[in-house]
Design a protein that fits this description.
It contains two helices and twelve strands, in the order H-H-E-E-E-E-E-E-E-E-E-E-E-E. The chain is of the alpha+beta class and about 250 residues long.
Length: about 250
């Protein structure tokens, strides 16, 4: 049998436990009730027809609008790509094909090359740069058209150039660093006598000196700075000769 003191101690312990843990159990019970309520609401929402929840079957009109919108976005992308490509071609670089043998052995007929234009916005052409410039030619119908020539810069603005005894002379001295000329020059052309270049004029020659129409002829003459389109940067075809163009 329990005595009176033990019973009172047990009752006191129960009262203390209820007072301490009671709010916790009440909170757990309230959370359980809320979860049951939310679950019931979710079940009710899922059981509602699509029409009541704002769902609409796509109509031909909405599908047509989406198609028009997609086509419009595609058109914008195409136009943007065209503008970027045009800007790159006009201001940065473009590809072209070599015709003829005047730049042998550096470049051959049919070589595909890249002409870079960017560097000449910040500097002038230098000696031995391989440059591209237009020359006016007459086509089969008698119309004047621009043909683009590829030649190597030999003399710079302000210099005096002459070809004597098959050698290039700059300001009266032989051009020693011309490693691109592999044979004696047979035709001095207009450079048989000293030619002094103006402030924006360049004297150009083909590497195949005896098979090149260049600044020695009246047909090409001296090349003005504003007419230089760009510098031949690299060859991309044929793959067997792929690489940068020495200059």
């Amino acid at each position: 049998m329990y005595n009176k003191d033990e019973i009172e101690d047990s009752l006191e312990f129960c009262r203390t436990a209820k007072e301490y843990y009671g709010p916790f159990f009440d909170e757990k019970e309230d959370l359980h009730r809320r979860r049951k309520s939310n679950s019931a609401l979710l079940d009710a929402e899922l059981s509602r027809p699509h029409k009541e929840k704002g769902w609409r079957r796509p109509t031909s009109e909405s599908t047509g609008l989406r198609t028009i919108n997609n086509l419009f976005v595609l058109l914008i992308c195409v136009l943007l790509a065209y503008v970027i490509a045009s800007a790159v071609t006009h201001y940065v670089a473009h590809q072209t094909m070599v015709e003829g043998d005047s730049m042998e052995p550096t470049l051959s007929d049919g070589d595909s090359i890249i002409i870079q234009k960017l560097s000449y916005y910040f500097r002038n052409p230098e000696r031995y740069d391989v440059v591209v410039f237009p020359v006016t030619e007459t086509d089969q119908n008698g119309n004047n058209v621009n043909a683009y020539y590829v030649k190597r810069v030999i003399a710079l603005p302000g210099e005096t150039v002459q070809i004597a005894d098959g050698k290039v002379m700059i300001n009266g001295e032989e051009l020693k660093g011309d490693k691109y000329c592999l044979s004696k020059i047979l035709d001095s052309g207009n450079a048989a006598q000293p030619v002094t270049l103006g402030e924006d004029e360049y004297f150009v020659l083909g590497d195949n000196r005896n098979m090149s129409t260049d600044s020695r002829s009246d047909y090409v003459g001296l090349v003005h700075r504003k007419d230089i389109v760009g510098e031949v940067f690299m060859r991309i075809w044929p793959f067997s000769h792929w690489g940068l163009i020495p200059g």
